[in-house]
Write a structure and sequence with these properties.
The protein is mainly β and about 180 residues long. The protein has one helix and eleven strands, in the order H-E-E-E-E-E-E-E-E-E-E-E. About 10% of the residues lie in helices and about 45% in strands.
Length: about 180
């Protein structure tokens, strides 16, 4: 009887260890940070993985634009996720984006800009799109590859924002993107 109990306990422990292996960490659910034009985007939003998914109308869930001729270089990247009756959107911008380097999100007069929306948050916290929507914004956008000829822009980002209106702090961490026209 004692051996049966011991075998049952060992079986239970081995099954629990398998559960850990099948439940990857949030960081492991993000795409790798590449510079090949893989058309990937990912970050953690307050510790939860965010990658583009789903569709809203005909719009793609990952879109970017880089114009070398407007305002010294204008970069816009938009990613959205539509799943489980929830839509989240992250928009990164940098004006002027002259080349490789790190650009600050810090207010005031930052080059890098961020917008975030989440339909599950209460109004007015569900959308923060403009400089005037933020009480605080800190972080950076780092461009690691900028190749206008190949149409590839790659980089990383981290940003913490506090919106006006008593909204919770939004932390976007472990951000990475690798997009191609």
């Amino acid at each position: 009887m004692r051996k049966l109990f011991l075998y049952a306990a060992l079986l239970l422990l081995s099954q629990c260890s398998k559960c850990k292996d099948n439940d990857p960490s949030p960081e492991a659910q993000l795409p790798p940070a590449t510079q090949t034009g893989a058309n990937t985007f990912g970050c953690l939003v307050n510790g939860e993985p965010f990658t583009p998914a789903g569709r809203v109308g005909l719009d793609p869930n990952l879109y970017f634009e880089y114009d070398t001729t407007f305002n010294g270089g204008t970069f816009t990247l938009q990613a959205f996720r539509a799943a489980d009756r929830r839509q989240q959107t992250i928009i990164l911008r940098a004006i002027p984006l002259a080349g490789l380097g790190t650009y600050s999100f810090a207010l005031p007069n930052s080059i890098a800009q961020i917008a975030y929306s989440d339909t599950r948050l209460p109004d007015p916290c569900d959308e923060t799109y403009s400089e005037s929507d933020f009480a605080y914004r800190q972080g950076s956008l780092t461009i690691t590859r900028l190749d206008p000829v190949a149409g590839i822009v790659s980089g990383t980002f981290e940003v913490k924002v506090v919106a006006l209106g008593g909204c919770d702090t939004i932390r976007l961490t472990n951000g990475r993107f690798d997009v191609r026209r």
